[in-house]
Amino acid sequence: MVGETDRATGVEVNPVAGHIGAEITGVDLADDLDEAVIAAIRTALLRWKVVFFREQRLDHAGHVALARRFGRPIVWPRRGSASPPDVPEIETTADRLELSGRYGMDRAEWLHRRNDSLLHPWHSDWSNHIDPPAATILRAETVPPYGGDTTWANLAAAYAGLSAPVRDFVDGLRAEHRLGVGYQPRPGHDAYVEHLLGHQMATAHPLVRVIPETGERVLFVNGFYVEEIIGLSRPESRAVLEMLLEQAVRPEYTVRFRWEPGSVAFWDNRTTVHMAPRDTAHLDFPRIMHRVLIAGDVPTGVDGKQSEPLTVGDPELR
């Protein structure tokens, strides 16, 4: 049998890739789920890092209620204009609405200036914070008829796949996470750079994080937020970070999900990086998604030491 079914709950977990990702059936997420079902989902999430549900009927209230069964939903300090005004835990990501017009740039310029490499879009959410979110629950309302897939990579498998000497080397390192990494400033006045300088939040995190529930070591890299490895020169940092990011997103450590209306993805933000779709900018189709972040704790490294803040900035920067 490929999948595993919990006879007591009817929850069936079907892996969809070798290292990451499983589709869960036999669950209506809008129901008042009992503790056994919640425990089965939590176990699958820890094992497979991201789990998928199809044909769900969650509304905003049900989405937040579901997140509360797994932790504390984060109230967004700032959201796009498409987000529901009366549900502060939900951010609606309607691609063109979210990005157009921010800091005096249209969507195309904003994306161009933020992405300086092929690895840059791979990220976990809010890792510039001292306590990045533990998990994300994202549901699809409207999706294009083709394109718009999301991809995740397993950071525990990536770490385990390193050679022993490289694992020993990275175990003791820390990296600087901050917003604006790789951003190419505009000539003259740049409102985004001004915003960064006035409100920046940055954290020194272990390059290898230990997950409390499992004891797994994960490669805590992030193309969007990692500035440099502390103690290395900038050329050394660039070379090591590029090598580690390439390791993290090797195809065998990834899973790609095709969205449908009513689909839900629930992922561990501590043990994965993900990449939003890169193939829809030229398509005239809406893609409307809703997400809730679940609060996390301060990461701990192999040496038992926790992350440390480098700046005390504005939580609006993420």
In short:
The chain is an alpha+beta fold.
Number of DSSP helices?
A: 8
Globally, the shape reads globular
> Tally of extended strands?
17
Report mean pLDDT, rounded to a whole number. Answer: 92
Rounded to an integer in angstroms, the radius of gyration calculated over CA atoms is 19 Å
Roughly what percent helix? 10-25%
Strand content: 15-25%
Quaternary state reads single chain
Largest sheet: 8 strands, mixed
Low-confidence stretches: none
H/E series: EEEHEHEHHEEHHEHEEEEHEEEEE
What would you note in describing this structure?
By secondary structure, the protein is an alpha+beta fold. The chain contains 8 helices and 17 strands. The chain has helices spanning 35-48, 60-68, 95-99, 107-114, 155-160, 164-171, 191-199, 234-248; strands spanning 4-5, 12-15, 22-25, 50-53, 91-94, 135-142, 150-154, 174-178, 202-206, 208-210, 217-219, 226-229, 254-257, 264-268, 272-275, 288-294, 308-309. The strands form 4 sheets. It has an 8-stranded mixed β-sheet. A 4-stranded antiparallel β-sheet has the order 12-8-9-17. It is globular.
List the helices and strands and how they pair.
Layout: E1 4-5, E2 12-15, E3 22-25, H1 35-48, E4 50-53, H2 60-68, E5 91-94, H3 95-99, H4 107-114, E6 135-142, E7 150-154, H5 155-160, H6 164-171, E8 174-178, H7 191-199, E9 202-206, E10 208-210, E11 217-219, E12 226-229, H8 234-248, E13 254-257, E14 264-268, E15 272-275, E16 288-294, E17 308-309
Parallel strand pairs: 3-4
Antiparallel strand pairs: 1-2, 2-3, 4-14, 5-16, 6-14, 6-16, 7-13, 7-15, 8-9, 8-12, 9-17, 10-11
